[in-house]
Amino acid sequence: MRVKITELDALIIVDMQNDFMPGGALPVPEGDKIVPVLNRYIETFSSNGNPVFFTRDWHPEDHISFKGYGGIWPPHCVQGTKGAEFHPELKIPYDNKFIISKGNSRDFDAYSGFQGTVLDDLLKERGIKRIFVGGVATDYCVKNTALGGLNLGYQVFILEDGIKGVDLNKGDSEKALSMLLKKGAILINSKDLYT
Ligand code: VGL
Ligand code: ZN
Question: By three-state DSSP, how is residue 182 classified?
Answer without folding.
Answer: helix
